[in-house]
From TrEMBL:
Ranges of residues in domain FAD-binding: 2-337
Pfam families associated with the record: FAD_binding_3
Name of the protein this chain belongs to: 4-hydroxybenzoate 3-monooxygenase
UniProt keyword terms in alphabetical order: FAD, Flavoprotein
InterPro entries: FAD-bd, FAD/NAD-bd_sf, RIFMO-like
Transmembrane segments: none
SUPFAM superfamilies in the record: FAD-linked reductases, C-terminal domain (SSF54373), FAD/NAD(P)-binding domain (SSF51905)
Superkingdom of source: Bacteria
Organism: Streptomyces griseorubens
Length: 387
């Protein structure tokens, strides 16, 4: 596995549970990957999958169940109780906690080999029966190589495995033309649920992460400089865009992370090339609009881990042969949801009165049409992949 993110570590845990020898190579240190804050909303089908594989013990003890979200538009509060509607919920568990659990389980409990801090990872002979991966060892500074049966490319959006197939894959891209200022505030959540502010001046969001830390988002121009967003401006915009009649005021706190994310998506097809199989952000990026990236990465990892085990222990290659096609169905489904949601969030601030009108109609229909509400809840909560 190249990459010790959620995808690589989950594949590793599945392999180790079956007694397969494997190695995870990671450019960051263990401390770095265990502290990197990113996602926090995990779908119930992903948690069920983790639980089935013995990987959800700590999560189930510590994570919070989310049963509703709330849209704020037209100056009003519009709670959306998806649990009441479907019986299903979301889990709130910061990504770095999940990664910490997975590193511990993979390396300390299941005895999986891992090299942190490697440099200049290169892939070799991917089309042959015996590919290899080489890297510069952090201690010796020498290049070392590992021969293997398969390579799992789990090194995220800026890794080497996606780049290795650049000339052979079809990479479809979509640019939303907007940015999100991603913020972490050292403050308790301002509401006990996810808030989506659809405001004519731009989208704003609040996502509870823990009793002490809350994630906020503010729509901004793509490529904006976080330096343009001092503390007072951030909080003034958040108060304005998330303000609604009868709503509690936001709880302010120091901003411990402030970065601009340009909203874009891509999908690499196929996800398999000879002995290399891509998983997670290495294969596809879904802008954080729909909070699906981590979920897709773990869905991929379940499918790939199980397929490797079938092939290596039982000689059954069907799972690997079908891996790319079956995973791409859910990937495209989630990409389409992200686009749909983006228009709901950002249409009102597009500067185009026609788009603003249709975005508002879309928002109102969520609260007036039970069929629309049910369809939204199903997609928001995520689908169990077929594997
Ligand atoms: P990761 O987590 O990026 O892990 C890849 C790992 O590979 C390492 N690496 C290499 N290792 C070896 N050799 C190389 N050449 C390497 N190059 C890189 C990296 O150091 C890293 O440790 O990919 P993975 O496993 O595919 O997981 C994907 C998720 O991390 C990502 O999709 C989510 O974080 C996206 N996302 C969200 N997803 C959700 O499902 N729900 C959310 O609420 C959510 N919120 C978010 C997000 C992403 C965000 N950012 C920062 C883009 C919020 C934010 C702000």
């Amino acid at each position: 596995m190249v990459g010790a993110g959620p995808a690589g570590l989950t594949v590793g845990c599945v392999l180790r549970a079956a007694g397969v020898d494997c190695l995870v190579l990671e450019t960051g240190t263990r401390e770095f990957v265990e502290r990197r804050p990113r996602a926090g909303v995990i779908e119930e089908p992903v948690v069920r999958g983790l639980e089935r594989r013995g990987l959800a013990g700590t999560l189930l003890e510590r994570a919070r169940r989310d049963t509703a979200c709330e849209f704020r538009f037209d100056g009003g509060r519009h709670p959306f109780g998806y649990h009441e509607l479907t019986g299903h919920h979301h889990w709130v568990y910061p990504q770095q906690f999940l990664v910490t659990d997975l590193v511990r389980e993979y390396a300390d409990v299941r005895g999986g080999a891992v090299r942190f801090g490697v440099r200049d990872v290169r892939l070799h002979d991917l089309d042959g029966d015996r590919p290899s991966v080489s890297y510069v060892c952090p201690e010796s500074g020498h290049r070392e190589a590992v021969a293997c049966d398969f390579v799992a490319g789990c090194d995220g959006a800026r890794g080497v495995t996606g780049a290795a197939v650049a000339g052979r894959a079809r990479v479809s891209r979509h640019d939303y033309g907007i940015g999100w200022l991603a913020l972490l505030a050292e403050a308790p959540p301002s509401a006990d649920r996810v808030l989506f502010g659809c405001h004519p001046d731009g989208f704003a969001g609040q996502m509870p992460r823990s009793p002490e830390v809350t994630r906020y988002y503010l729509q901004c121009p793509p490529g904006d400089d976080p330096g343009n967003w001092p503390h007072d401006r951030v909080w003034a915009e958040l108060h304005r865009r998330l303000g609604a009649a009868g709503a509690e005021p936001l709880t302010e706190g120091p901003l411990i992370e402030k970065r601009v994310l340009d909203m874009h998506d891509y999908v690499t097809e196929p996800m398999s090339f000879g002995r290399l199989h891509l998983a997670g952000d290495a294969a596809h990026l879904v802008a954080p609009i729909a909070a699906k990236g981590l979920n897709l990465a773990v869905h991929d990892a379940f499918a790939l881990g199980d397929a490797f085990v079938d092939r290596l222990l039982r000689g059954d290659g069907a799972g690997l042969a079908g891996y790319s096609a079956s995973r791409l169905r859910q990937v495209w489904d989630y990409q389409e949801f992200s686009q749909w949601l983006s228009e709901l969030y950002h249409g009102g601030a597009s500067g185009d009165p026609f788009r603003a009108g249709t975005a508002l109609a879309r928002l109102r229909r969520l609260f007036s049409s039970p069929a629309t509400a049910a369809a939204f809840a199903e997609r928001y909560l995520g689908t169990a992949a077929r594997y």
